[in-house]
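One-letter codes give the sequence; the fold follows as tokens. An example follows:
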Amino acid sequence: MARKLYFREWRKYRKLTQEEASDRLGMDRSYLSKVESKKRNRQRYNEDFLGAAARLYKCEPGDLYRHPEDPYLGLEKDARQVHLTNIPEARALLQALRLPKKNNANGDGTQNEGDRS
């Protein structure tokens, strides 16, 4: 099963029209329209095309597989940059990635005033 590419979402996120994006990518606007459609999106694209789109949309080629407003976008790159010898920084990054648990009475990760030990 092919993964979804978010070409249209990235173009709109960068506030480009199809005409502007197609001109900068060196392709016909109607072709870009097909690329952005779900029918055409199931095809594989070569590295050159993905690289050109990523440069235009100011992201990494792999980011095109994620929505531009995904809150975890870029965290993988940040995690790879944490050197293994810097354990405190690695722990801090992992702590920052944890979502609050919603198993308390408030349902929001906080404790009730009387629940604190």
User: Anything to note?
Assistant: Residues 71-103 form one domain. The radius of gyration is 20 Å. The chain has a mean pLDDT of 77.
